[in-house]
Predict the structure of Cardiolipin synthase.
Amino acid sequence: MIELLSIALKHSNIILNSIFIGAFILNLLFAFTIIFMERRSANSIWAW
């Protein structure tokens, strides 16, 4: 029973890690879009 629980926890950790990595990459893309693709003004940084 303990082995089954340990396998389930490892599987859920893989899923959570992939979700967090995906969210981090999306955050970087949004930051790049807002800061560099918007008008070249210092005020666009505050939108992020």
User: Anything to note?
Assistant: The chain has a mean pLDDT of 75. Residues 2-47 form one domain. The chain has two helices and no strands. Residues 4 and 34 are 45 Å apart (CA to CA).
